[in-house]
Amino acid sequence: MKTLVIAAALASTFAASSAFALEPIPGSITYNGQPATKLTASPVGSPLTHSFTDQFGRDVEETYIVTESRDLQLVSRRFLGDN
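Above: the chain sequence. Below: its structure as tokens.
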């Protein structure tokens, strides 16, 4: 429950300011737009992590939040192995 509250707070904070908006990169779930299927079973505000290797060979971990419209909002990106 604590994670859900923190995730919802993060989503609203990032949504309020486009200056903090992350743009999808190749490999991101939302790189070519939203997925064709909606996440109907996931509660609004729930976090979703996605790990992949980008075009430069770096391991990437992204966190998304499920919005009220059932779209995914990218809220953080971390390059694994970076200090």
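The CA atoms of residues 21 and 82 lie 21 Å apart.
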